[in-house]
Inverse folding.
């Protein structure tokens, strides 16, 4: 019942705060990686270079798919912003349903920007179905496709090291976040400005995806405080010998 | 059509979620039925994904882009293994050989490169960023490696303290990160469920 209660509370807070955020936009703290991302998008459009967005291997049937959805929300906004560019962004993923969703998201982004004719299905690519085949298929794109910024957002494993190494070799910008702890450690060591923990889910809010994304951040903060309180109360009761 | 896809996606999500929390009679049956459909669709998506892979490689070959030779090799290997897999089945000795003699060694080689890459990334970290968290990060990694790796002299002195005390701190930290990720996943899921984010081309 705690799960249902948490879900209902989160849903009500999300709806209420989304309505509120439509009238009062949030002031977000500076996250250097997202500042760099916004600069990189502008530079890529001006230079005629590409963005490469890799959404990882998050299976949509598991909880790992959550990070992939966060990546798709960001992709939608980035597609709109780069729709005037000669070189469209390339999206890679290591899960077939995710590839189809990425193609759909690219098409929706172009449609929203009034440039649907620019959409090419070959810009949303499945590069491999196992961790290393995914890395092996993605590395040539970083190397050969005139990419100036690599954005890795989603579920990655240890293969993230090979991807970030290639991004570094090509001297490109790297913005990277993952829900996987191993990949987070790898990105911490290899990215200029690492994104840690739930910062991945803030991507939409920082690229201007709308009030609901800003409201999500507020709800996360509220729920985090509730969890902290529950942990402290639980620890206190355990110390006092009260059965929980 | 777009409205229909959105309504269908949201209704399916709500039914699966309700069926998960309240596994009662028909609702649970409906949840399992929808999940079965989703599994079949995901299977078809793999075939579409392979089509996408082949189409991208064919485009590369047609345009004689850099690395198109690898594209030829990929398509050739794909046709052979896919065809033989259909004819012989995945348990045939030839199919097992294809995995054991090609896929496993290639992935093992990449794993070996990965080890070198990680060491190199750790060294470069000091060149990129020198602050307290960087020092703590590398110090913790080195101490844990020393504590868990086999040595000719057996365990190093103090390994128990490192794994217990350091482990306590790192477990606490990782639980904090995982809680944050769980909350983020929850909110992302709710946005999709409410149709605010529609990655299936609805908005």
């Amino acid at each position: 019942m705690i799960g249902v209660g948490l879900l209902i509370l989160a849903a009500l807070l999300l709806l209420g705060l989304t309505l509120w955020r439509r009238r009062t936009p949030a002031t977000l703290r500076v996250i250097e990686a997202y500042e760099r991302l916004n600069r990189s998008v502008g530079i890529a459009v001006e230079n005629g270079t590409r963005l490469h967005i890799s959404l990882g291997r998050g299976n949509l049937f598991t909880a790992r798919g959550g990070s992939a959805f966060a990546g798709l929300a960001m992709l939608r906004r980035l597609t709109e912003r780069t729709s005037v560019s000669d070189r469209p962004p390339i999206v890679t993923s290591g899960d077939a349903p995710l590839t189809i969703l990425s193609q759909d998201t690219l098409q929706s982004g172009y449609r929203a920007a009034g440039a649907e004719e620019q959409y090419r299905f070959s810009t949303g690519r499945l590069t491999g179905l196992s961790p290393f085949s995914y890395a092996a298929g993605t590395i040539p794109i970083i190397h050969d496709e005139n990419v100036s910024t690599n954005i890795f957002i989603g579920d990655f494993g240890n293969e993230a090291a090979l991807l970030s190494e290639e991004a570094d070799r090509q001297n490109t910008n790297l913005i990277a976040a993952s829900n996987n702890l191993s990949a987070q450690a790898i990105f911490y060591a290899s990215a200029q400005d690492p994104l840690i923990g739930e910062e991945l889910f803030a991507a939409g809010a920082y690229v201007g995806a709308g009030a609901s994304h800003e409201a999500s951040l507020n709800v996360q903060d509220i729920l985090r405080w509730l969890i902290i309180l529950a942990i402290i109360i639980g620890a206190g009761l355990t110390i006092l010998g009260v059965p929980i | 059509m777009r409205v229909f896809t959105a309504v269908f996606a949201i209704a399916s999500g709500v039914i699966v979620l309700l069926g998960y929390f309240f596994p009662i009679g028909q609702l649970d049956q409906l949840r399992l039925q929808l999940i079965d459909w989703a599994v079949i669709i995901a299977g078809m998506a793999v075939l579409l994904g392979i089509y996408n892979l082949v189409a991208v490689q064919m485009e590369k070959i047609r345009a004689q882009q850099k690395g198109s030779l690898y594209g030829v090799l990929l398509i050739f290997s794909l046709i052979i293994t896919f065809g033989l897999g259909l004819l012989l089945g995945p348990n045939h000795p030839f199919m097992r050989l294809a995995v054991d003699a090609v896929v496993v060694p290639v992935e093992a080689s990449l794993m070996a490169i990965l080890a070198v890459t990680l060491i190199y990334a750790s060294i470069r970290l000091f060149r990129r960023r020198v602050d307290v968290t960087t020092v703590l990060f590398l110090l913790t990694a080195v101490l844990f490696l020393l504590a868990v790796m086999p040595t000719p002299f057996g365990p190093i002195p103090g390994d128990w303290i490192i794994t217990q005390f350091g482990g306590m701190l790192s477990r606490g930290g990782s639980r904090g990160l995982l809680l944050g990720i769980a909350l983020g996943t929850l909110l992302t899921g709710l946005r999709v469920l409410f149709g605010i984010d529609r990655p299936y081309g609805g908005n």
